[in-house]
Amino acid sequence: MQILIIEDEEALRELLDYEFRRLEIGVLALDNANDALMAVEDCPPDLILLDLMLPGLKGLQFLDILRREGNDVPVIIISARNAETDIINALERGADDYVTKPFSFNFLEAKMKAVLRRGGEIKSSPKFSLGGVSVDLEAHKAFSDGQALPLTQKEFELLTLFMRKAGRAFTRNQLLNSIWGYDSSLVSRTVDVHVASLRKKLGDKGRYIQTVPKIGYLWEISNF
After folding, report:
1. Which domain-ending residue is among 59, 88, 117?
2. Is 48 helix (H, G, I), strand (E, B) or coil?
């Protein structure tokens, strides 16, 4: 595994570099996003830890470039900025998670494992299962403990997205854009109604869909 760290705070950058090498994890630690763009092309990382306030190219600008080019490498923001608007903005622009400074290495490591767990076979497989809930994309069916779920088209798409990106928090606008094809806070109630219906049809497994206060929803992988 190769981790790319983009952090201009020298003490933190060196600490993270040390901790990953101690765990025998490959790591490249850089202090700016311009060099990181070249590094991503030369040696694609498995995960990126990205600070927001960087010299030159800013963190979110770097993230925008990645996503615009179709690069879906997992990105965790590490930043001292803890305002709700900063977190939501980063998630909506393609970040997979957001960790505010200061943080413990154990906490960061847990976040990384959760993000990486979303990858792998579940991204490409037509059939996948989490916690007793399974989806068959070819048959366009979903099951709970082997019993077929009577889902609408949008509910099926929501469930598929949540499970593919288990552990990732989605804002309502992200879900509107992904599932319905438009982005407007004026109709965010649409998401709430469909999530409530999906939870009900999942029965006791509806607890997997967690509400993230002031942000949106996620499929909580720690619940199974």
Report:
1. 117
2. strand
Q: How much of the chain is helix, strand and coil, in % rounded to 5?
A: 45, 20, 30
**Tens-place pLDDT, residues 63-104:** 999 888 878 889 999 999 999 999 988 988 889 899 999 999
Last residue of a domain, one of 63, 90, 117: 117
CA nearest 90: which of 99, 81, 77? 77
The verdict on pTM exceeding 0.70 is: no
Neighbours of 31 (CB within 10 A): 17
What is the Cα–Cα distance from 78 to 116, expressed in whole angstroms?
16
Q: How far apart are CA 116 and CA 135, in angstroms?
A: 20
Range of the domain at 9: 2-117
Residues 105, 13 share a domain = yes
pLDDT in tens, 125-160: 677 888 889 999 888 899 998 899 999 989 999 999
Dihedrals phi, psi of 25, to nearest 5 degrees: -105, 130
CB 145 within 8 A of CB 132: yes
* 183: Cβ contacts below 8 Å, ≥ 6 apart: 173, 176, 177
Strand duo 75-79 + 47-50: pairing: parallel
Phi-psi region of 49 (alpha: psi -120 to 50; beta: other; left: phi over 0): beta
